[in-house]
Amino acid sequence: MTHGELALRVEGLGKEYELGERRAGASSLYDALASWLPSARREAALHQGRSPDAARRDRFWALRDVSFEVARGEVIGIVGRNGAGKSTLLKILSRITTPSEGRALLYGKLASLLEVGTGFHPELTGRENVYLNGTILGMRRREIDRKFADIAAFAEVERFLDTPVKRYSSGMYVRLAFAVAAHLDADVLVVDEVLAVGDLAFQRKSLGKMEDVARSGRTVLFVSHNLGAVRALCSSVLLLERGGVTFRGATEEGLARYEATLAEGGAAIAATRFKGPLGDRVRFASLALRQGGEEVAVVDPTAPLEVEVEGEATEDLGALELNLGVFRDGVRLFSCHDSSSGAAMRRGAFRSRFEIAAGALRPGRYVIGVGAYQPGGADWTWCPDVAVAEVSERWSPLVQSRDVGLISVPYQGERRQ
To answer: Domain ends where: 263, 297, 330?
Structure first.
């Protein structure tokens, strides 16, 4: 494609990070140089009895050799498991972080919506935060003035605009934050998981806004685990795995390949894929699907399904609930919890079991998310795509012919005449 047809070109992009804790400050000029100069680092490693290669084992590439192009007006979905490099890519494109190698060429003005609510100040009113956050996101005051009424109406907080946002409910907060970002004018819009905010009604409203943006002819890079939203919005898909691009093409084929990577995930759980402040204190190690006491790869829908999760708490945490989310096509169908009131979690290994009744899951592929949270608190950790449950076609002909839907639930029906 020529420059006139392009909105974005990425060439050999890579980002390297250092793992582990930051070392103590330099105790000498030599140590200071060793922290800055590659040759000095090599020499320091040798003095400490380590090879230069060993000194680099605590570094990893979040992205490596990523190249692709996006045409003007294209709406592209970026999918991949947590830890695949999606957020790192968007932060580089948004100039929040710099690449370790390669470059990203942008043709036009870019606006990003990566973390809803970034830039909000709790002591300021909703009105003041609209102007503050809009300015941080690149809007001019005249533009904010012109769009203020639309922003307030979209967020449904008109009555509370002169109230400090620290008194808002969490739903009001995220609605206002999304409304500001969703009204940005830009040639390229970068969006990361914004449809996960707010209640169901507001998520539908947010999806409608994203559809309006897509129809307006603007270029959109859309990251989401909601595969239904990706199908509705995106004309093509970019699949990331372990920091690299493994597919770039039609939406349906890309999503099919993504779902296939979930099915190949195995029992081990990668800690780097979990998000949230509890991630270092609650570490999930494995997940297994069992029926009749045996581990299964394909689930028989006519028998109960047991999901067993193992992990470790690195400290005493008090009341804590472990939970599963069961998804289909990116839609969360239901949740399971291992405690009704948040049993105490002590330091050490734990094992939680969840049982899903026979007949609840109809044939098809389900994605299982795993997490933990402290009831009534802000501490949590979560990964939405830990494993896949493949449910076989073995099914009662009577039930299959009568019930239609994604899942089956117990119910009673009664007719009176």
So the answer is: 263
